[in-house]
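Please, structure for the following, as C-alpha cells.
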Amino acid sequence: MMDLESELLSASQKVGDAFRVQDRLMGNAANSLSVVSHNVDVLTSETTRMCELSSNPQRTIKEIDDEFCRITGLNKTDFVFLAIATAFQTARWIIIDCMTDFGSGAERDERIDHNDKSIKDAEGESIDSTVDRLKDPQDMRYRSDVIRGRTWTEILSEPVPFDVIDGSADFDLGMSGRNHREMTLGHDPILGWFFGTINILTDTTTLKNVKTFIMTRQPRLRFSRKTTFTEALRSAYASCRIDKKRLSAAIAMEAIHLKSDFFSKAGLPIPVITAILPDLSSSLYKENYDALCLAKDIGIVALQAKTAILINIVIAQLHGYFFDENKYPSREVFEVKTRKILLYSNIIAESSNVISVAIRSLLGDVKAWKHLDFGGLLVLLWRIIKDVDFMYKVREDYVSNKFKEIVVGDYEKRLWPLKEN
C-alpha cells in the first residue's frame, strides 16, 4: 500500500514538473514571438525609409546643405567681429596711403653723385677685401683668337667694361652718359648678374637688344668691334676653366658696381623689363622711376600686405575663442564662420579702396591709381582662392558624412535581442 502511495506521489510531481516546463516554454515562445514581431516592425519601417530615401535623395542632401548653411551662418557675435575687422582693414589702407607715396619718381637731387668720394671709398674697400680673399702668388693670363679672358687681378683693378660710352658713336648706338645704364644689360639689377658678369670676364658690353661689343683699353676703355654674346659666353667659360677665381672676382665686381649705382643720382633701370619692354624701360627711366623707386614701392606693397595679414590673424585668433563644441559638430565647421568674417571684411575694405580711387579718377586725378591698396588686393585674392576652396571642402565633407549617417541609420540599436533559453 505504501509503495502505491509513493508511486502516485512521484507521478503527481512529474506531472506538475511537466506543466511547469510547459508554462515556461509557452512564456519563452510568447516572448520570442514579441521580439520577432518588434524586430520585423523595425526592419519594415527601415525598408520603407530606405525606399523613400532612394526615391528622392536630392531632397535629403538639400536638407543637410541647408542645415550646414544655418550652422555656419553669421550670428550677432560674428557680425560684431565682421564690423571690427572691416573697420581695421579700412583704417589700415587709409593710414598707409597717407603715410606713403606709392609710384612716385626718384628725388635724385637728394642722392649722391655716382662718382662721389664715399662711393669710391666703399668700392675700394670691397675690392681690397676681394683681392685679399683671392690673392695667389701665381698669376695666369688667358688669350684667345677672338676674345681675351681677363685675369682676376685685372678684373678687380680695372673699371667694368659696360660703364663707358666712348666709341659707341662709331656704331650709331645712340648712347649717352644719361642713358647708358638703361641701355646695357650689365646695369640691370637682375639680368646684370648674368650678362654683366660675362661682360666683366671677357671685356665686352652687351646692350638690351643683346648686341655685344668687344672693348679695348688702349689707349683708353672704349668700344672696339662687334662680336656675339654666344662667343662672349664661350670665352668666359674657357677663362673660368683656367682660373676659377676669375668668376668670383667678376661676380664681386658686378655686385660692387650695382651697389654703387643703386643709390646714386643716376640710379639703375627697372629690372628685366629693359630686355622685354625696352621702350617702357626708357620711358620710366626718363621719368626718374628707377630700381630704387621700384624697391621702395615693393616695400610699400609688402607693408600693405603684412598689415592686412596681421589683422586677419588677430581677428581669427580672437574669434576662435568663441568655439563651442556643444553647438558645432567640429572645429573645421566653426572655422568656416571665421573665414567668412575675414573674407567679407577684406572684400568690403578693398571695395571701399577701389571706389575711392574711382572717384578720384572721375574728379580728374590722373594719378589716382597710386592710391590703390595693392598689397591688400593681393591678400584678398589669396583669401578668395584659399577660403572658398576650404569652405567648399568642409561643406562637401559635412554633407557627405551626414548623408552616410542617414543611409546607415540606427535600426540596429532599435532591434531587440532574442534571449537564449
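The CA atoms of residues 60 and 406 lie 9 Å apart. Confidence is low (pLDDT under 50) at residues 137-145.
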